[in-house]
Structures are given as structure tokens and as C-alpha cells.
## 1
Amino acid sequence: MAKRDYYEILGISRTASAEEIKKAYRRKAKELHPDRNGNNPEAEAQFKEVNEAYEALKDPQKRAAYDRFGHAAFEGGMGGGGSRGGGGFGHADFASAFSDVFDDLFGDFMGSRGGGRQRASRGSDLRHNLTITLEEAYSGLQKTIKVRSAVTCTACQGTGAASGAEPQHCPTCSGMGRVRAQQGFFTVERTCPTCAGLGQIVNDPCRECGGAGRVEKERALSVNIPAGVESGTRIRLSGEGEAGLRGGPPGDLYIFLDVARHPLFERDGINLFCRVPVKMTTAALGGDIEVPTIDGGRSRVKIPAGSQSGRQMRLRGKGMPALRGGAVGDMFIELAVETPVNLTPRQKELLREFERESESQDNSPESASFFTKVKQFWESMKG
């Protein structure tokens, strides 16, 4: 039976680029792989046909020969599928073809692509937790922090080699940082055991860093904390993380802020809440009180006569600034009417006199309403 056209097998045109050929092969190989087509007896033969077509078309010289002479270009073994001589497409060629797609599918995950790039790998990101006061969150500040991390060794300039020597290519992996082993149809890749994936070895290591190219050091960094930050706000300092290996770029430093609890104010977003004790006489007769504000100032608040515990009063624009947008929150005063303690005999007598005077008057409407409901409840239970 006449062999099918290789372009037809892969479903591509004769003008297809090398990338289009690889994509078509990857798609067909996944579709026809025998492991995924157990119920299709023809899948294995079709899978081999696809691999044969890809092996011929991925190589520019073989493709040129096929375009000129067709299948006759490979007579004598090249296109036979089982021959090992005369440049034929045998087991090793199949493994090589499938390895290309394996790299394409899993190369980024396993690090096979550009393994030599690990020679100058990026440094790790760092985290630093910083606690500030509510007043500092209100006004913003410039703060100096101390961070201990790995920095580039100045003695060897990050190369890890002493006396200005340059690291050498690893002879095991030829500088790629990865080594391959053939296992059946697959090429398995792992980190080079000689250079630990760096692609380079240091014959004469630097005495300061022991060949690591980095040393531990404490640094003082200035951090700009904007007004309006909240707990959980993250500030990124680019390039202030750990130094990279073999002269690679440094990582970043992330500062996570925590705003400490305040003895006077509770925060909810951009609003502040302050619980203010009020004397019983002031709550009953009315009056003025002074309350603190987060900027360190004072605000005078008028207490209406007959105010009860839990009553809230708003001071507009006395809250926290928004981190973005320029808005400013409000401050809410919650009154807490305080019952007097440690009374003198005279004070007790005055309160008893007040109680006698108020028996015939409706001075406590909330209390009267509550006990009316209690009486109705008891009567309903009896019924």
C-alpha cells in the first residue's frame, strides 16, 4: 500500500514553518498516543506514522530531500521505521523525535529549557513584619528598618571564585545545569549532581563566601509608609531581597504592616470610634465635654440633656485618611453614662431625695416601658 504524504499525516501545508510542524506533531502525538487509545487497534500504527512524518520534516535537510524526491528520498532505510542503518528512523530516532515534544510540554516545569540560565539565578524574595502605631498610620512616616539577608560578596563580586578567577563550565552537564537519561521512548531529565544545577563549578572558591558568591549581612533600609495604611498592607521594595546566585538579580523585600491596637480609638476602615464615659449628671442635665482626636488635638462636644448610654455622635473629618483617593473618615463618639460610686452620706441622701421626688414623674421612660412589658409577659404566662 502506498505511503501517505507526510504533510497530510500531520495535517499541515507544504509551506508550514518549523514551529507549525512541531505544534501539529504535538497535537497528533497527544491525540494518537497508544496509552490514550486502548480501544483503537489502529492507534499505535497511526502514532508511529505521525512520528515518522515528524522525524522527516523537522530536519531541514531531510525535509528538502522529501520535498524534492518524496518517499523515494528515504529508500534504503531512512523511512523504513525499523532500520538502524543508513540514517534510518529507528528506536533512537523515535525517542529523539518524541523528546522534542516532551521538552515542549514539560521543559519549563523541569527546567530543561535554557538550563544554563540557572548559573545566574534570581535571589529569593524576603518578608519583613513591621508594627506601627495608629498615629503613625494616620500621618504616615519614613522609617528605618534592619534586615539581615544574603548580599553579593564584595571579595569575589558574586562569582564565588577567588583571586578574580572565573567559574568554569561544569564538565558533567556542559554548563546546562541538567543531565538527561534515556528511558524507553522518554528522555528523563534531572539536576546535574556535580554543579547542583548551576552549570558552573568553582575550582578555587572565595574564602569570604566559601564559593557561594553571597554572604549574610544586616542592612539598614529606609521605608516610606504612606498615610492611611491598615493592618495587612504590603509594601514592596524592589531589589532589596536576597542577592542572586552567580551575579543574578536580587529578589524583592515585602514589608507586611500591622497597626497596633490603640488605648482610645477603634478603627473600622477610615472611620474611628471612641467610647467616652459621661457623668450621670452631665447626661441628665446636658453639658459640654472635650474628646481627643487622632491628630493629637481636642474637640468640644455638646451633650444633649437626657442622653443615654450607647448614643453616638459624629465628628466629621476626624477619622483616618484613605490610602488612595484623598477621602477622610469620621470619628464617632459613643456615650457611656457612668453610675457614680464611693458616694458620701450626703450624696446618698440627695439621691434618695431625688428618687422620692421622681416617683410621681416620668423621668425614666425606658425603664417604665421595660417593666410594663415584663408585667404583660407574666400575665400572659398565667393565662
Note: The mean pLDDT is 82.
## 2
Amino acid sequence: MLTRVTLGDGGRTIELGWQDGASSRFHAMWLRDNALDDKTRSAGNGQRLITILDIPSETRIGAAAIKGEVLEVTFVPEGKTVGFPAGWLCSHVYDCQEARQPGWTGGDIRRWTKAMMQNSVPRAAYTEASRDGNVLRQWLAAVRSYGFAVMDGLPAESGALCKVADLFGYIRETNYGRWFEVRAEVNPNNLAYTNLGLQAHTDNPYRDPVPTLQILACIENTVEGGESSVVDGFAVAAALQAENPEGFRLLCSYPARFEYAGSSGVRLQSKRPMIELGPDGELICIRFNNRSLAPVVDVPFAEMDTYYAAYRRFAELIEDPAFEVTFKLEAGQSFIVDNTRVMHARKAFSGSGKRWLQGCYADKDGLLSTLAAIEHGFKEAAE
């Protein structure tokens, strides 16, 4: 609840007092640009109807008053009065003194290790998730929080993995097709199509942008070995940062190069850091794939030794069993990973029996949009 309002700097800023004793400052220009009236934003979709150039550059607040749970503001020189709900203002406060360290993550992200997740892998049954919005909400929220989840009860048939993507979004088709086969082949064009073990990795770092989700579904698995495993790249990055801040800085500061040319007519290349931070230091992406790493040429000579030492240590931590959660997919099971965060791997398996998985890519915008819509619906129902 708002308790006081004070204008500052000739009306160019406003300071609000809250019931808990906190205070928050806002700029007049920011408030005007984010006004909630139907002349500024579409009532139908919430999109802004004006440009920044439609707002007078000399905009300031001529008057402000608290009316119940609403802050009423009059902007000059327009003479326009707009109401801002207190709850909306509280959720959009940007006057923060907290200094965030590089590598921070949002409140929805929970980093994990083997000790935390091996016996509590998030999972749901497909039939229940497709019929019950609460089950789907919990499963999608687990993907948002932990970066992976298992789904049981799919039909053990080709193309069934599409049903998982259909729960929240759309498949992202690539040169590998709408989906791709993961089983032993003769003369494969990708090491994923052998019975060799695969180091924990993120997929397709040579794409820009990378597919942000990967789904792998099991149709048949009667081999010895071949377990799947996942590693939280955000947790590994935090461990590296704690023991070697300089190495962490180097892997964030300089781009690696990735490339793929394994198919006729395809030549994919990208240039991005192995550990990517946003401009405000938020940890937003891990790219790690030994098979696709091209020569690193963007690190200065004076720092290349140290960079490679950090790369090696990052790889050692990724291989540390303390970070690895392992499970074996049975026919009709699938799992999804956030390909910007969670690395997946496969243990080697024997030549006897059959191991047939299918994989496809999707993107987080669809998953997060579906989750937000479901959560909004639950919130409205509760109110």
C-alpha cells in the first residue's frame, strides 16, 4: 500500500513511500512511456500505441495523489492524467541499490547437483499433462526452474515426441529435419548416431540462435548401457566462478567459434562465448560441445594459455560425477532439456539389442508463454 508521494527535480521524478517503510523513485518520462490508459496501450493486446517521439521531451509530473490503491499522476505539458495501480508500480520498481555480481540468475532458476536431483527428477505422465492444466503447469515450471524434466507414457512409435512439443509450442525444424533419429548407423554424419558415449554437451552451438529446447524420446531401448545424463551448466559455471574468477571472466569475455559441415550443402558457423552473460551480468547461456568447437582465434595471445586452462577446468567440472544426474529411458519415455543451460550426455552401449531414440528441437518462448498463460489463469481463478 502506498503511504506518501513526493515530487522531485521540478517534477521530473517522483518518490513513493510504501507501508513497509520502503521508498521507490520513478522518472516522469518512464511513467509516461508506460502509462496504462487506452490511448497509450491497446486494451486488446497491451501493446504500446505511441512511440517515444510522441511524448514531449520536457515531460514532467504536474501533480500526483494517492487515491486508494492507485497513484494518480498528471503529466505536463500534455495535461494528461493517468492512474497507476500500486501493485503494478511495486512489481516494476527499478530503483534498486542491490549490486548484482556477474553470473546472477533470476528467482525462477534453481541450480542443482547430483545430490539434489538424482532421486527427485521432475516428471509427469503425458496423458495427465495433456488433460490437466495443473499437471502441465507443474511440469513446465520444472523445466523453467531446473532446465530439464522427464515425461512418461508416450506412445512408443515414430514421431510421438511431437506430442510433447505440442503441449506448449512448436517444433523448430532444422537441416536434420522435423525430427531426427538417434541410433547406431553405418558411416554416420554425426557422432550421435553411433554406440559411443557422448560427453555432456549442449546441442548445435554452431547455430545462431541455438535451439533453446531439445526433446529426446525413446521408442526402443534393450541395450546394455546407453543411460542418459544431464548436467546443470549454470551450477558448473558457478563452481568455476567460485574457484577461478579469472577463468570464469575469460570464458565470458571472449567468443568461442563453433562449426558444422557434416552434411552436403550445410555449413553452419557461430561465434559466441562458452559462458554468456547479459549486459547486466545475468547468466543467460552455456555453449559447450567438444565435437563442434572450431579453432579459437578471438582470444589475445597473452591470454590464450589462461583461457585454455579455464576451458579445461570447465570441462573437468562438467565431467565431475557430483554434477551428473543419470537415468535410463525406457520405451515411451522422453525428456526435455533447456539447451541454453543443461548439458546432456549418453553412456556407451553394447552392440547387442536396440537403442532407438528420436530427437527434435523447440524453443523456450513457446514454453514460457504457455506456462505464463496457465499461471495467469490459475491466479485469476484464485482471485
Note: The radius of gyration is 25 Å.
## 3
Amino acid sequence: MSEQQIFRVTLRMQVHPGKGADFERVWHDSADTITGQPANLGQWLSKSLDEDDVYYIVSDWTDEERFREYEQSAEHLEHRGRLHPYRSAGTMATMRVVHHFTGAAARA
């Protein structure tokens, strides 16, 4: 698959103060809901170093259509519901990967 076909979703999650560890645990324990999707290429959870209680979730998909199918599914609503009690705000950005270069450390 070429990088230009990869559909990327980035979620910014503001978590209630003091709930970060619980959010991370629930996210981790239910991550296979996303990675088990046939069109999912992988996902990452990152914690901001610049903003308190902010997390970023990045997931890559084979194409937008199959992501949107999952987004409208009952399985997605259930997954989102597990994370909702910890979240105070959130935004989503979607994009296509245009170029990707593997760094020296990854090639070693």
C-alpha cells in the first residue's frame, strides 16, 4: 500500500484532571476494538508533554470509506462509550499521508 492511500485519524482528548491513568488503562484494554478492524493499520496513544491531561490518539486506515463504516458502527459507539467518562473535551482531524520516510534508527 502506498503512503498516499493511508487515511489517518488524529484525536485530541482532554481528560478530566486525575483521570489519566484510568483513561490509559481503559484505552489499552479496549485497543483491540480498533486494531481488530480489517481496515485498521495500527494506532498509537501519546500523552502531551506541553498540555496537562491531553492525549492524542492516532490511527491509520486502509481508506476513508472503511474508516467511516467503522465510525458509524455499534462497535464504535460502544468503544467510544468506554472512554467517554474520562474525557472532558475532544477534537478529530482526518488526513491522507502524503509522504513517509523511515528514519535511521528504525532502519538499524
Note: The first helix runs from residue 20 to 29.
